[in-house]
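Bug: token stream looks shifted between consecutive jobs. Job 1:
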Amino acid sequence: MLDTEFKYLASHSEELLRLYGGKFLIISGEQVTGAFDTMEEALQSTGEKHGLKNVLIRRPSDLQIEFSAPALTLGLLSADSSQSNNSTHKEP
């Protein structure tokens, strides 16, 4: 699902970044069908233009972001908030 859109975004990322900067893009197939300043605007337009059809909404600049968390990878920390340490939280 959305393989075509992800491939299009990846292969055209530099061009899309140059043309649209940090805007949220609506990508359907191999076509940008909208560019918006906020996710809310993009979502509203997607509903109006595409209805229930699957589309990709993404900023080309997000492809530039890399995240590494060795402590999570090695299991030293948990991203599961239900396992948080309650020893610092005192009940009233």
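Job 2, same session, no restart:
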Amino acid sequence: MSKQVVLDFPAELPEKGLKDKETLKKGKEAIVLELLRKGEVSQGKAAELLEIDRWTLFDLMAKYNIPSVDMSSEELKKELQQAQKVFKEE
């Protein structure tokens, strides 16, 4: 099931431009990436909604400074310590 989003723009914007496929694609991309940034959709769901693969999504995320891993510095330190323990045991 799909949802439709209606956006209101001032009348002076050219209607032709608002119906342009590339413009609409960029608008959808902006909304999905903002939802991703806010953690309201997963990376997998964002890629699915944008009809792109995960690698292309990572490129978009980098372009718009959206972190691919959302961890606090404390969580990151913990993960690093765990990884160091694993590699020391090998």
